[in-house]
Amino acid sequence: MSTQVTKKLNGLPLTQMMETVGAIKNDPAIAQFQFRASNKWIDGGENRSMIQDFYGAGREDDSREVPFEFTNGEPPVLLGGNEGANPVEFLLHALAGCMTTTMVIHAAARGIRLTELSTELEGDMDLQGLLGLDEGVFPGYEQIRIKMNVEADCSDKELEDLLEFVRGHSPVCTTVCKPVPVVIERVTSSN
Amino acid sequence: MSTQVTKKLNGLPLTQMMETVGAIKNDPAIAQFQFRASNKWIDGGENRSMIQDFYGAGREDDSREVPFEFTNGEPPVLLGGNEGANPVEFLLHALAGCMTTTMVIHAAARGIRLTELSTELEGDMDLQGLLGLDEGVFPGYEQIRIKMNVEADCSDKELEDLLEFVRGHSPVCTTVCKPVPVVIERVTSSN
Which of A7, A154, B50, B147 lies 20 to 30 Å from A182, alpha-carbon distance? Predict the structure, then answer.
């Protein structure tokens, strides 16, 4: 009879993480993932997404018995009733989470134990862009700033190196920082 | 005694919308918004954001009595316990919502009544990028595809024109499609 001990660092199972990296090195095709969301307009600035299945590690994932549901809304000053956070706020949530998880993964890979990690994000936007009132105004975020408070059992230099690596390897951060093609196709219910 | 009737199109109050546009034309400074999120790491791939205040229309918004809370998680295949959708899925939710709300606003501005609007999104990602296993692999989404099913009381040509306009004016879509600077600053609790 043996006792199984799962060695974790930053909450991540180290053996399983190393096995995953080894499996990908052996067969890079299993690193191909496809994430999905479906969304339905409710009324005005309110709409709702369902997120459940995805493809990854060579197969369709079936680990979620029920879908996650998230509601976009708008505050009164943007003609809504605060039915939910708004889409540009959800983008900040996605960015915060991705920077954090990418930090956690690569800290673990380097043997760094994190004890605290929190972020404050702010992004500037000129609504003249969205409203089409001035075609010279960019409709998206002009800039997003992240203040990160991180405590770890390593030197300041190691933490700076880690953060610099994370900046260039976070999927959401790189999607925001670099141009990513969005292809839009109009379909009808009968498709 | 007068009866106030709020004329709505696509759920948006038309008079208030036109007044907002008029006010911005008169004083473009009120179109400056700053959105915010704060996030705290829990453990492993789990972290949580709080979204409440923002600046816009010349003042701090105080319309939300309690903050919205959203949890990022990871599925088992990505070493998590499905504590929430993951950050790259939240990005799709943000994009879906922003395309939808931007459609709703500009349809209303053009006098187009929408009767149905739903989207299906999928995005491809090669995890070799996130994991730093191949520096030639982009860590973010390689491409995001949106299938939009939209029904409206206008011609097909008007709908195509609207969709083309929306693609270039959705804040999240343009943030994804174009390079947006993300500035990261490391702070300590004492800051």
Answer: B50
